[in-house]
Amino acid sequence: MKSPKKFTGLKRVLALGAVTLATVSLQPVSAQAAPTPVVGGTRAAQGEFPFMVRLSMGCGGALYTQQIVLTAAHCVSGSGNNTSITATTGVVDLQSSSATKVKSTKVLQAPGYNGKGKDWALIKLASPVNQPTLKIATTTAYNNGNFTIAGWGAAREGGAQQRYLLKATVPFVSDATCQQAYGSDLVPGDEICAGFVQQGGVDTCQGDSGGPMFRKDDSGAFIQVGIVSWGQGCAEPGYPGVYSEVSTFAADIARAASTL
Predict the structure, then answer these.
(1) What separation, in Å, do the N-terminal and C-terminal C-alpha atoms of the chain show?
(2) Which of 2, 58, 140, 176 is most buried, judged by most C-beta within 10 A?
(3) Is 56 in the active site?
């Protein structure tokens, strides 16, 4: 069943082997199968992924610019002025006194978003943060190979969020294979799948929406190819994670960012 990977009452893990990002308490979108325990996730080093952002409504994100966070459309409730979101940056330890916390000023949800596809949004911060940004893919050239996923959050359904940022690696899954799992729910034109289809065990899950899926480009720099969007259960065999395909929306994201 299609289930956004946003914390909705239950904390669904970002299974970096079940690593996770925690979220706010809402009502469950749907019943979830029990997740696998954390398998293969390891703690990220301070400064390893400095573009990572934790959002107070219970989602993840990445610094598109030093004042704009790229996240998922289903993490926000529309476009307009919004000062209710706090972005935490600069740390792997959420309890660190070195964390930089900045309030939002505006939100721009993908135009035409209706719950299927187009799962991206931008959040403008009240002031820039002094952290590196994560460039986004503008072509499908990097929609292959192995990707990194990272996040904070619960390691089991209903568990407490993680204090430290965890990371894991997941392989690309073709549209054809992904459609075997999700059928017409998948929007292959603007979604990309990743995960260990046969054995499961490593995935992104509810509570991790909006966080980046990324890899190295030809120059060795990180580049974002996906945004955590949705999936069935957590790290279930046969059901890879589904991500918004960043390259499809790169031009739209750039135009939107210029208006914030």
Answers:
(1) 35
(2) 58
(3) no
What are the start-end ranges of the H helices in 153-245? 175-182
**Active-site annotation holds for 3:** no
Q: Choose the catalytic residue: 3, 74, 79, 190.
A: 74
SS3 68: strand
Q: Which of 3, 79, 104, 209 is catalytic?
A: 209
DSSP structure string for 134-168: -EE-SSGGGSSSEEEEEE-S-SSTTPPPPSB-EEE
How is residue 151 written in tokens? 């996040």
CA R_g for the chain: 16
pLDDT in tens, 53-93: 999 988 899 999 999 999 999 999 999 999 999 999 999 99
pTM: 0.86
Q: How confident is the model at residue 30 (pLDDT cuts 50, 70, 90)?
A: very low
Paired with 212 in beta bridges are 227
**CA distance to 64, 205, 243, per residue, from 32 (Å):** 31, 10, 18
Strands (E), the chain: 42-43, 52-55, 59-65, 68-71, 80-81, 86-89, 100-109, 121-125, 135-136, 146-151, 166-173, 191-194, 212-216, 222-230, 241-245
Alpha-carbon distance of 150 to 16, in angstroms, equals 7
Residue that the structure tokens 């996240």 belong to? 71
Q: Is 74 a residue of the active site?
A: yes
For 64, other C-beta atoms within 10 Å of its C-beta total 25
Nearest by Cα to 137 from 147, 128, 129, 124: 147
